[in-house]
Write a structure and sequence with these properties.
Blueprint lengths: L7 H8 L3 H8 L7 H14 L5 H8 L4 E6 L5 H17 L2 E6 L6 H9 L4 E5 L5 H8 L3 E5 L8 E5 L3 H12 L5 E4 L6 H17 L14 H12 L8 E4 L2 H13 L9 E3 L6 H4 L6 E3 L2 H11 L9 E5 L2 E3 L25
Parallel strand pairs: 1-2, 1-3, 3-4, 4-5, 5-10, 6-7, 7-8
Antiparallel strand pairs: 9-11
Helix pairs in contact: 1-2, 1-3, 2-3, 5-13, 8-9, 10-11
């Protein structure tokens, strides 16, 4: 038979299945039984069928694509998110279209354009206006990462409140009295939650918090800037610094070491994420471990729910990981095994 006559409906008739099943098999979806997959593939291979993706989108009223909107794509956090999201999309045969906003003023317009080319969209908190999220949610399913659902159909975030546990550990177990917080809450819901947990721990222990956070970004270079602000001023430097993420913590440690200071003897430093480098530096970085890959996979999974379904807020647990940078005993570099956590052996 001429290949021009071989289309999705013809293949479906020959295989005794629906056109939707042929489409799922052709894009590698896992939602097809092995028996049906083999039957459809036999017809496809014998007659040289090549799917028309545009026609498939029209027939199924879907694009076979998911959108992923981030403020930026640099750094280990976003790299891990992308890998987790793509691994889940691979299971369902979906393509992933990435949009990095870089906080541009035209982000809302770009998101609206992307919405016309995908079946669902994951949006990292702080990148898109609430009004645009509500607008896009009228036509496709939207899941927000690292914040509450709001006008979206669902949200998935990790528990930033664990920063409070870490802060109490610094104040009570180590007796540090002058703590600083490095990060910019404005425009970042997760950093805001970490700053609030930091303040709450001070209130619970009766300690006096700093007047405000040390305002920098989330890159390692911003940690070096934080070191300059905290260590080169005329004011007495802090005993310990709670950073909003590991990258700034590592940058701050480098800044402190470059000024002849010792960590943790002269200044203790903690982070958030538990990126691989946190366990490799000396001393090891005390931090909060968050399940970044799970954050992404759960988000991608929720995008396949019906448009009318609202799943609310999913909160993933986090754990304090105690290492040498806060003053706890540090394991030798490269040693594996369970890390001590606050409340356990330290």
């Amino acid at each position: 038979m001429s290949n021009s006559r071989v289309n999705v409906r013809w293949v479906a008739e020959q295989a005794g299945v629906s056109p939707a099943t042929v489409s799922r098999v052709s894009r590698g979806s896992a939602q097809v039984s092995p028996e049906l997959r083999e039957r459809v593939m036999r017809v496809i291979e014998e007659h040289g069928y090549r799917p028309n993706h545009f026609g498939r989108a029209l027939a199924e009223k879907r694009h076979g694509s998911l959108g992923l909107v981030f403020p930026g794509l640099s750094g280990p956090y976003f790299s891990e998110l992308i890998q987790g999201f793509e691994s889940e999309a691979l299971e369902t045969g979906d393509q992933v279209l990435l949009l990095s906003s870089h906080y541009r003023s035209d982000t809302d317009a770009k998101v609206l354009d992307l919405a016309g080319r995908v079946d669902g969209m994951a949006i990292h908190a702080g990148t898109v206006s609430e009004a645009m999220i509500e607008r896009v949610s009228q036509t496709i399913r939207v899941v927000v990462m690292a914040h509450k659902a709001g006008p979206a159909h669902a949200s998935v975030s990790t528990d930033s409140g664990t920063v409070g546990t870490l802060t109490r550990h610094l104040l009570v177990e180590h007796g540090y009295r002058r703590l600083a917080f490095v990060g910019t809450p404005e425009g970042s819901p997760d950093v805001t939650a970490r700053w609030e947990a930091f303040l709450a721990a001070h209130a619970e222990t009766g300690a006096r918090p700093p007047a405000g956070p040390t305002l920098v970004g989330l890159a390692q270079a911003d940690g070096a800037i934080a070191a300059q602000k905290l260590l080169d001023s005329e004011e007495e430097p802090p005993d310990a610094v709670v950073c909003a993420n590991d990258e700034t913590a590592l940058g701050l440690i480098l800044g402190a070491l470059g000024r002849g200071m010792r960590v943790p003897e002269d200044i203790a430093v903690t982070g958030f994420d538990d990126m691989p480098m946190a366990a490799l530096v000396q001393p090891g970085l005390t931090t909060v471990r968050q399940p970044v890959r799970e954050l992404a996979t759960v988000t991608a999974r929720l995008l396949h729910a019906p448009l009318t379904q609202r799943d609310g807020d999913t909160l993933l647990t986090t754990d304090v990981v105690l290492r040498g940078s806060c003053g706890c005993p540090d394991r030798p570099s490269g040693e594996t095994g369970r890390d001590a956590t606050a409340g356990g052996d330290s």
